[in-house]
Amino acid sequence: MNPAVAAPPTLDSLWMPFTANKAYKARPRLLVSAKDMHYRSDDGREILDGTAGLWCVNAGHCRQPIIDAMLQAATTLDFAPSFQMGHPLMFELADKLAGILPEGMDRVFFSNSGSEAVDSALKIALAYHQARGEPQRCRFIGRLRGYHGVGFGGISVGGIENNRKTFSAQLMPQVDHLPHTHDLSHNAFSRGQPQWGAHLADALEAQVARYGAETIAAVIVEPVAGSTGVLVPPVGYLERLRELCTRHGILLIFDEVITGFGRVGAPFAAQAFGVTPDLLTVAKGLTNAAVPMGATGVRTSIYETVVHATERGIEFFHGYTYSGHPLAAAAGLATLDVYAQEGLFERAAELAPVWESAAHAMRDLPHVIDVRNIGLVTGIELAVRDGQVGARGYEVFTNAFHEQDALIRVTGDTIALSPPLIISEEQIHDLMARVRRAVESVS
Ligand SMILES: Cc1ncc(COP(=O)(O)O)c(C=O)c1O
């Protein structure tokens, strides 16, 4: 691991994202280097990474082939415009990504983040219906407890109250939400997909009856909701949603920013669950998070419909200066090579049973009201303390970092664990032991 880097002289200037700024600055947590399964903190501790950074460093940290590819790209072609111009790496990466996307999804639109990939997907859905002569299909249906990034599109279709309330006066119109599938009276301590809840997809029928199918452009869901605490789809739920969307001519968008690249034991959740959407968003693991990049995978027929609807000139008025940036494209290519060469998606599937039993062994801990899991991800839900949502979870998180040398993630009072896919069996048990001590430390 690289030598420690000096802490910054002041923390004042930075407004930190999704952070309790005052609490953080009073007791900072600084990461200064990383290698494989570990971070190093500014006070020289080795921190076991239980979250693959932020659900993104699936191949482990500072992987040499990815670094080499980025160095090569940075010294060869720093930047090339992507509007009316191109460079080889962006085409190569699109092709390679299409190769692992679900069948029939052979077109790729690049962006720089999950939020942008979602915005791009929503716009593509609108463009598609317009090109087909159904411009009135412009309503979107998201799902409660869904997270689709922080653009106005993403927070509108997303279902997280805290992310919406400050901006509620200006959210996208014509959006509604399906119910979420989390109900501990039916689903507590499910291993893998819960048995109960497929019928909740039928809420889409009610939306269709209410608004008319001919007004609905797309439904967007995370196959496994990550940011609101690892909500695994009930058996049959995604199939039902697919069937209803097909029946009513509604596009189905899977937001796979978290579930992509092996997290659930297949390249994408679409393949793990055997349900193919029409559009699929990715980011994070696409470059192993070594450099920002997002992408929207698109059914070939959607691309062709939009592109052929315009006789001459630009067919889709959307894009980013850095769509397919050479550095990100190089990192993406090297990352997909590492995943393939090391069989990391298969590895996640192989380790999943070990992960599952290690996670469910936590159910005897104080305050634990649920453990749920799929692939290499688990949610451990703690009871809310005295109506103070998130207080107990935050204490577990800070104890894990400061006292147990483990990076975990909490969302409200749910601990969400999603380690790099290179984790060993021994490290799985070590991680769970650290989490156990952190949970035991709080009242
Ligand atoms: C499912 C999902 N969609 C979109 C996003 C937004 O990605 P970004 O933070 O790269 O904009 C995230 C981020 O966690 C996510 O989990």
Distinctive features:
15 strands, globular, 443 residues, alpha/beta, 16 helices, four-stranded mixed beta sheet
What does this structure look like?
- By secondary structure, the chain is of the alpha/beta class.
- The protein has helices at residues 21-26, 52-55, 64-76, 88-100, 114-131, 152-157, 161-164, 184-187, 203-211, 237-248, 269-273, 300-308, 326-341, 344-360, 391-402, 425-440, and strands at 31-35, 38-41, 46-49, 107-111, 139-143, 175-178, 216-221, 251-255, 279-282, 294-298, 368-374, 377-382, 406-407, 409-411, 414-417.
- Strands 4-10-9-8-7-5-6 form a seven-stranded mixed beta sheet, sandwiched between helices.
- Helix 15 (391-402) packs across helix 16 (425-440).
- It is globular and about 65 Å long.
- The structure holds pyridoxal-5'-phosphate (PLP).
- Pyridoxal-5'-phosphate (PLP) binds at residues 113-115, 118, 147-149, 222, 226-227, 255, 257-258, 283.
Radius of gyration: 21 Å
For the secondary structure, the number of strands is 15
Poorly predicted tracts of residues: none
Label the overall shape: globular
- The helix content, as a percent range, equals 25-40%
Which ligands are bound? Answer: pyridoxal-5'-phosphate
Main sheet specs: 7 strands, mixed
**Count of individual helical segments:** 16
Give the distance, in angstroms, between the N- and C-terminal Cα atoms. 36 Å
Beta-strand residue percentage: 15-25%
Strand order of the biggest β-sheet: 4-10-9-8-7-5-6
Q: Decide which structural class fits the backbone.
A: alpha/beta
Average predicted confidence as pLDDT: 97
